[in-house]
Amino acid sequence: MRVVIQRVSGCFVSIKGEIKSNVGTGLLVLCGFENEDTEEDLVWMSKKISGLRIFNDNNGVMNLSLKDINGEMMIVSQFTLHAKTKKGNRPSYIKAAKPEISVPLYEKFIDLCEKETGKEVKTGKFGADMQISLINDGPVTIIIDSKNKDF
Fold first, then answer.
1. Pick the catalytic residue: 80, 85, 117, 141?
2. What ranges in the chain are assigned the alpha helix state H?
């Protein structure tokens, strides 16, 4: 499982010109799944993201988590996070899990993040052509891969 986390002061997802969901201060989490991903990856990632201390405290130091600030979270599926670009100029997505594997993982990940944060998690729509507008706060952008926890 691979995620790109962006600290935002606001973001929204639209599909065919209509806003699907939005959040204020919090995190936009783009997530992609591989066939080998397990529930263990999802549990580890949901705990890691909700506990990341990437929000500023009163001294302007990144010392607070999403839970500490009572922030919001939006999760959007993005299979292109598993693009392989080693050969040629056209990315290969062979490592990205097919929908029959990734949809249940995506739904379980959303549930786990809701349990971790104690709040509803906003989402895009799996497999849809989405447009995401965001205000990246900081900017702060972090990439985490559950198969490479040192990444």
1. 80
2. 39-51, 66-69, 99-117
The C-alpha atoms of residue 28 and residue 57 are separated, in whole angstroms, by: 20
Distance CA 120, CA 81 (A): 24
Question: Which amino acid is it at 105?
Answer: L
What length is written for the chain? 151
Residues with Cβ < 8 Å from 62, sequence gap 6 or more?
53, 54, 55, 56, 140
Q: Are strands 55-56 and 122-123 parallel, antiparallel or unpaired?
A: unpaired
Is-catalytic flag, 80?
A: yes
Q: What would the pLDDT profile of 19-42 be if each residue is shown by its tens digit? A: 999 999 999 999 999 999 999 999
The domain defined by 2-145 carries CATH number 3.50.80.10: yes
C-alpha 82/C-alpha 139 separation (Å) is: 23
